[in-house]
Please model this.
Amino acid sequence: MTAAAFSTADIAVVGGGIASTAAVLRLLRTGHSPLWIAPAQKEGNLPGEHLSPAARPMLEEIGAAGLLDAACHRPEQSVFSAWGSDQLAERSGIVHLEGPSTVLERAAFERDLRALAIGAGAAPAEARLTGLDWSGEGWILEVDDGDRLGRCGAQFILDGSGRAAVVAGIQAPDHAARLRADQLVALCVVLSQEENAGVEPTRATLLETVPEGWWYATLQAGGRLILNFYTDPDLLPRDVTRDTSVFRAMLERTTYVGRWLRDAEFSLDAPPDLVSAGTTWLAPATGEGWVAIGDAAAAFDPLSSHGMTTALWTGIRGADAAIARLGGDAEPLADYAEKVGRGVQEFLQSRATIYAEERRFDASPFWERRKGAVTDAMVAGS
Ligand SMILES: Cc1cc2nc3c(=O)[nH]c(=O)nc-3n(C[C@H](O)[C@H](O)[C@H](O)COP(=O)(O)OP(=O)(O)OC[C@H]3O[C@@H](n4cnc5c(N)ncnc54)[C@H](O)[C@@H]3O)c2cc1C
Model:
């Protein structure tokens, strides 16, 4: 490996997801040219597609709201749920004043957002941050693009590296504790209809609880079905990520999800992927010369469907706070950290309320662990 040329900027943005890209767009719009350390987008499916209507004003703020008009995304009109009851209840998107959610084709949305930033003048370095040092006058960032190791400089860092939260991890592992309210994981799979299927699948989202966790299924505009099962790692059946028949057997124990798949002739041909989906956060979400944005600051149980909205909000407001800090004003940064902390506490309260609505499985460990408010004693470092 060889060393790449040294470049500097006032602000460096780490990560290539929604939070980082929103931050980059915000910085460009305010006349800044950040260093952007953004690994290439992963091939294939990205989990997370339900975009809350609360995201639209933020997308407008960074000139990206038009991306939602692409034909591969669809407005969500119907959510059905069997949560706390054997009966299926429907919630219509039309009755919400702020408008419906959007079911995204997530990989396309992230590709388009990145293209928008590049079109606005951003030049992402497809590399990973591997090391950090404070020189006395600014940060030295060590990066690795797979072929070459490089070093670059910045006065301030926006960390949008997702749940990895690399800046806090490298720079201040003791200063900013990563806290965790649960160990939630998701089994994720994307299904297509069988060839020659004679049915048009319902354009909707479905939630269903079972003793070991909860199912989520949503139809994308292109007709593929996103299917996730949320549970705790110790409750996962053996071999579920290797043997398709294990996941199929789990589906057969559902009432509504399995029926939807059968009636609309979706086929399950491969076992699901396993990803982390728990509620974890940094306290505080800022440090000397850096601020965490998106999942790096706070990652929520996907029950909230607020991860992407939080990524947008923290990306934009984190960028504003960084600019203010470089101009000598530390208050917006303190205000940002306070709001992120408050948002986490509010989320934990709503999470407890929603999980408490399911009383049929009180004796099961998954639901027992989520009863009541999260206390300090339940929060352990990750
Ligand atoms: C199963 C599941 C379902 C979900 N469903 C929804 C949903 O329906 N609605 C919703 O709003 N949210 C949902 N979420 C949450 C949502 O996906 C996240 O909140 C969102 O992706 C956070 O964006 P981000 O940019 O902060 O992080 P990420 O999307 O994780 O991006 C992190 C970026 O950092 C990069 N990176 C990592 N390490 C380094 C490094 N060392 N150097 C440089 N870059 C690095 C990565 O390559 C990536 O580009 C879901 C999450 C999961 C797990």
User: Anything to note?
Assistant: The mean pLDDT is 92. Residues 14-20, 37, 39, 47-51, 128-129, 160-162, 164, 166, 186, 188, 228, 275, 277, 294-295, 299, 302, 305-309, 311 surround flavin-adenine dinucleotide (CB under 6 Å). Residues 331-356 form the longest helix (26 residues). The radius of gyration is 21 Å.
